[in-house]
Amino acid sequence: MKGLRRERDVHRVTDARPSLSADINRREKVYLIQMGIRTICLILAVVVPVPWPFRLLFIAGAIFLPYIAVIGANERGKDAPPPTFSTPAPDQQEIPLHRREIGS
User: Fold this and answer.
1) Is the dihedral of CA 56, 58, 60, 63 positive or negative?
2) What stretches of the chain adopt beta strand conformation (E)?
3) Is the CB of residue 20 less than 8 Å from the CB of residue 97?
4) Which residues of 15-31 are buried (b: 16+ CB within 10 A; e: fewer)?
5) How deeply is 59 buried, as exposed, middle or buried, from its count of CB atoms within 10 A (0-12, 13-18, 19+)?
6) Eight-state DSSP code of residue 47
7) Tens digit of pLDDT for each residue in 16-60?
């Protein structure tokens, strides 16, 4: 009887993806931190009297940080491990969906 048993795939808890709400919370925090840095760069570029190279650096941060923040906020599942499951073999006795006829 042991030879007839099919081995089952073992799934580990560490392979599970983080929940959707946890992923959204993480992305929101990162986005808000980056937007805070952008706001500081904008204020430093306008209010604080600093030499032009520093002012250009602050302006560049204020211009390019929103783009980087939005790209990062839209990236989902970056920390999730790749799926480890295997796709089952197709059942050869079943008619494929594209080969079925109307009324069958």
Assistant:
1) negative
2) none
3) no
4) eeeeeeeebeeebeeeb
5) middle
6) T
7) 777 888 888 999 999 999 999 999 999 999 999 989 999 999 999
This prediction's pTM: 0.59
For residue 76 the two structure tokens come to 């989902």
Tokens standing for 65?
A: 């940080």
Whether 33 and 73 have beta carbons less than 8 Å apart is answered as no
Q: In the numeric block, which tokens belong to residue 42?
A: 């904008």
Q: What is the distance between the alpha carbons of residues 55 and 60, in angstroms, rounded to a whole number?
A: 9
> Which amino acid is present at 80?
A
Structure tokens at 3: 């030879």
